[in-house]
Specification:
Helix content: 40-55%
Strand order of the largest sheet: 1-2-3-4
Number of strands: 4
Number of domains: 1
Structural class: alpha+beta
Distance between the termini: 123 Å
Largest sheet: 4 strands, antiparallel
Length: 126
């Protein structure tokens, strides 16, 4: 009678360690991608809020009488400022070309929006 050699069933220690290293690397890549996605989603949401706020601020400043648009404030975690500057006046001093600038920064000081528009406004008479 011939004896068959006994073959071990299972994995060697090296095979188990290689599988563990490969799965650890894959999990690290997945978690990093997830964290990056959350960070980008938060930045995108803050930028969207900043753009909506800037649109509102510039529309209000354009509609207000000349000389009343300069202001600063906060909206949630966003800090904003609006400044009005006269670019030129007509010779009769009835209207002026006014530039309205706005800047919005987040609570960490990152500038999310900066923009300007120009409008003709009537000059208040003294």
């Amino acid at each position: 009678m011939r004896v068959k050699p006994i073959r071990d069933a299972g994995f060697t220690l090296v095979e188990v360690l290689v599988a563990l290293v490969v799965s650890s690397l894959l999990l690290a890549i997945i978690f990093d991608g997830s964290a990056t996605g959350r960070r980008r989603a938060k930045t995108s949401q803050e930028t969207r809020r900043a753009l909506l706020l800037a649109d509102d601020l510039l529309a209000r400043a354009a509609a207000e009488p000349m000389g009343t648009a300069s202001a600063q404030g906060t909206s949630g975690k966003l800090k904003w400022s609006v400044d009005e500057m006269v670019v030129s006046r007509d010779p009769r001093n009835l209207t002026a070309l006014v530039e309205v600038r706005t800047a919005i920064v987040d609570d960490e000081g990152h500038r999310l929006f900066g923009g300007a528009l120009r409008r003709l406004k009537t000059v208040p008479q003294q």
